[in-house]
Specification:
This protein is mainly β. The protein contains 1 helix and 8 strands; from the N terminus they run αββββββββ. The strands form 2 sheets. Strands 1-4-7-2 form a 4-stranded antiparallel β-sheet, with no helix packed on it. It has a 4-stranded antiparallel β-sheet with strand order 3-6-5-8, with no helix packed on it.
Amino acid sequence: MKSAILILVSSIVYTVSSMGWYTYKFGTDVGDVIYTGQAHILRYSLNTQVPIKVPDGKQVSYLEINVESYSAPKVYYNNETQVASISFLPSQLTESDYTIVVRGVDANTTIDKNRHCGNVK
């Protein structure tokens, strides 16, 4: 029993010490910054939804999300609903921080659809 507890504690210490940054990029890096945000994700929050406030007359051309966490989350961006999602598995430690930077161009600007922020889900 004592050895099982020791192994568990060793695993937790190793996991805690291996926190890192994970970067996710969607779209073409053009345009002006139209939104920035940052927040803390609490422990046991498996899915965090971040609504992106896009000004009238603009469209998202690029979105970058940086997550500092113990393990890599899955990150999605839905351009139709303008919501970014940061998701963890139940087995992952979820406590983390994130920053978001969004660039946008005029709504009537044509963006290369092969690289544009689409429904990534």
